[in-house]
Amino acid sequence: MSEKSIKRLVIVESPAKAKKIGGYLGSNYTVMASMGHVRDLPESAKDVPEEIKKTKSNLAKYGVDVDNGFEPLYIVSDRKKKLVKELKDALKGAGELLLATDEDREGESIGWHLAELLAPKVPVRRMVFSEITKEAIQEAVLHTRDLDMNLVAAQEARRIIDRLYGYRLSPLLWKKVKPKLSAGRVQSVAVRVLVRREIERQLFRSGTYWDLKSRLATTDVAEFDATLSTVRGQRIATGKDFDEHTGKLKEDAKALLLNEATARELQSRLQSQPWEVTSVETRMQTRKPYAPFTTSTLQQEANRKLGLTARDTMRIAQSLYEDGYITYMRTDSVNLSQEALNAARKSVLDRYGKDYLSPEPRQYATKTKNAQEAHEAIRPAGTEMKTAEEQGLSGREAALYAMIWKRTVATQMAEAQLRFQTVTVTVDDAEFKATGRHVEFPGFFRAYVEGVDDPDAALDDQEAALPPLNEKDRLKCQTLDPIGHETKPPARYTEATLVKALEADGIGRPSTYATIIDTIIDREYVVKSGSQLVPTFTAFAVNQLLETYFPKLVDLGFTAKMEQDLDDIANGQGDRLPYLQGFYNGAEGLDAQVTAKETSIDPRSACTLQFEGIESRIRVGKFGPYVEIEKNGETVTASLPDSLAPADVTNAIVDNLIELKQRGPQSLGVHPETGLPIYLLVGPFGPYLQLGEKGEDGAKPKRVSLPKNRDPNSITLSEALAYLSLPRQLGKHPTTGHVVNAGIGMYGPYVKHEKTFKSLDKTDDILTVTMERAIELLAQAKVKAVVVPLKELGLHPDDKEPVQVFDGRYGAYVKHGKINATLPKGSDPLAFTLAEALPLLADRVARGPAPKKSRGRSSSAAARKKAPAAETTTPAAKKTTKKVTKKTTKKKAAE
């Protein structure tokens, strides 16, 4: 039989890939999907065969024979048995089996499981590719290899360790803390990282300092801001000069601390003095393009820029990969193939011109700790480097693809050139500093600018140029204002910063971060507050138990070493069995540790938290966290609100909760207009006000939460009326003319203008915040930059709407309403005319909208079920009905 006439069965992991790849291969190829894993460790006891339950208790208990070489028990689930039969039937007519599962350790493992399960009597080859294009698939068919058993062994060892870790420690948490919790090799370390940051915030002590901010004008009436830097040659104290544990100036800080009185005295003294420029310093800086995306950096940037969770990012990327738009999305590599380099450089030339092309092809070296899988970076697939619009993509797929396209193209663009200026202005015995920056040449900024985690940090391409200034220039002081500051605690982690921290420490694999984050949220170790990941009191209790009794298992260095050991197995430099024995057996092994310490762990102590500076005990119970204090010889308890983060607990909050609990619901009076009573109550989210009671028709009464910094025990009727009247209009924004509102939402007090929200600071009062303060806060909020046209061409003759020229990421384009048309190559956008624009727009309308690809499945995450709001019992309520929701869950430890 000739090579060309051999029938081949190709097995991939998903139907979408099977359909796409099948279209690239000839009639001699049958492409089928395994639908992920075809067999795995048993999910629950019911999956274990009866004969094993009777003869091998540990194998039945863990799915791993810890007494006999750590042999795993692999089970084909009922839902996969039909599929396995179909694969076996298809194999009967094939002369060769090609395993085309994903190009990573898990993919290698799935391929091996298929080979073991199907037991083919024909040659078996491994088919590997990093993108699903016709060229790549046909190339992969010609260059197959054997299964890499080192990769299989490493993946199996990882699976076994995760199973044993979870199955030995999770039941301990059920007994000592509360049911339905879980422990995991990476999961528990991630929780520890979050808890540590929350403890840092809890121990943080804020410091207060003042400075002066001036608004200065040149003789040409150009204005700029400058901030006080020195007085009598002594540097003014800033946030970095404070001890975060005491809130006081550091002993070695050689800085002058200004209080409000001193700042106002300086204001009065300096305002009328002559101001002069005494120094102008200029420095140039070069910025190089960022490396192309890896799994981790894609997750981070998608979270910052698109607001996507790690799970959503991976789901969308998987869809883009399977449909042939991007290369494989699970990779640690920042390498680009020659094909990619050529495509990116051609795209730069075509879209931006020669000046924007890097002189030489630019490659990057992987610096990630324990990097593995020498794949290519994530990039647009193929050789054409098409844009999202050219691909016909839409929605979140278009947004993520566009980000990948821009990042890839930017790697081959010229470096950006920035000019930074520092100007010193002297007035009497004080010096003020002003800084500015100007983008001399945008280079790769034209295509891509990376997001930032610090909300106060500026993006690289933002302009903040100073007006022309020279030494001895005289300036006029327009305004001089004392500004008070409070030092801020370290920021809580977001998904982006947590992924970054885990990767930097070599904890886990980037491809698993999405699952890890989902798990710690599902287990209620973490709640999301906006983009912040806030650890719960349950997380504190679990972390306390693990740190106290199993410190090695949650040690960052130990966990990173485990990743290295697994990498050694994958590289053929380590052995699976000795590694598993060292982890589980022996005096220091997992089994011995759990057995020895289980009886010594007191559940009550494990669930009791003592925070520094907090006089009461905090306990974690099966109905949630609560505080407990001794008062007049009695033990008094009060539930902690669900919305209260551990670091935000104070003695004042605890005292208020205890007092409110003892007093019960209070009537503050009657609303003068409605005649309804106003109650002060405490609910799952803390103290709140309620107008009236629940109606007979089930209608909920109006409620409003009290700000965290407002003492509920001193609320008056007039204040209650003011809170219940929120949101309130502060006036119209001077720029847009649209109304600015102030209100209280799920994240506390805020101000709002159009679609922009900004939380109030702790020192702001929602009832008295002014329009001026609201504008100042809104200016600090992250908003999309307004795109300014390069040129106004005039009005369109049909509808008299403006026609404008803009500078886009893909080059200049003309815009009329919602219609965009790219300018012809070589056109000068500043010289373009309305007469030239009209035919372009008409042609774009005639071509219709870009075609949209029909998706085989939704890429959106399943909506989480919301728990019903707790009902409130008022003094007038005659009956309380408690609803108990029963949830059937599998008694399975998460891995």
Q: What's the arrangement of secondary structure elements?
A:
Layout: E1 8-12, H1 15-22, E2 29-33, H2 50-55, H3 57-62, E3 64-65, E4 71-72, H4 78-92, E5 96-99, H5 105-118, E6 124-126, H6 134-142, H7 149-176, H8 187-203, E7 208-217, E8 223-231, E9 234-235, H9 260-270, E10 275-287, H10 295-306, H11 310-322, H12 338-352, H13 388-391, H14 395-410, E11 416-427, E12 430-441, E13 474-486, H15 495-504, H16 513-522, E14 526-529, E15 532-535, H17 537-549, H18 556-570, H19 576-584, H20 590-598, H21 603-606, E16 608-609, E17 617-621, E18 624-631, E19 634-639, H22 651-663, E20 666-670, E21 677-683, E22 686-691, E23 702-705, H23 717-724, E24 728-732, E25 739-745, E26 748-753, E27 756-759, H24 771-780, E28 791-795, E29 802-808, E30 811-816, E31 819-822, H25 834-847
Parallel strand pairs: 1-2, 1-5, 5-6
Antiparallel strand pairs: 3-4, 7-8, 7-13, 8-9, 8-12, 10-11, 10-13, 11-12, 14-15, 16-17, 17-18, 18-19, 20-21, 21-22, 22-23, 24-25, 25-26, 26-27, 28-29, 29-30, 30-31
Helix pairs in contact: 5-7, 7-18, 7-19, 7-20, 8-17, 10-15, 11-14, 11-16
Biggest sheet details? 6 strands, antiparallel, barrel
Record field, number of beta strands: 31
- Percent strand equals 15-25%
Q: What is the helix tally?
A: 25
Protein structure class = alpha+beta
Helix content: 25-40%
Strand arrangement within the widest β-sheet reads 7-8-12-11-10-13
State the distance separating the first and last CA atoms.
48 Å
Summarize model confidence as the mean pLDDT. 87
Radius of gyration: 32 Å
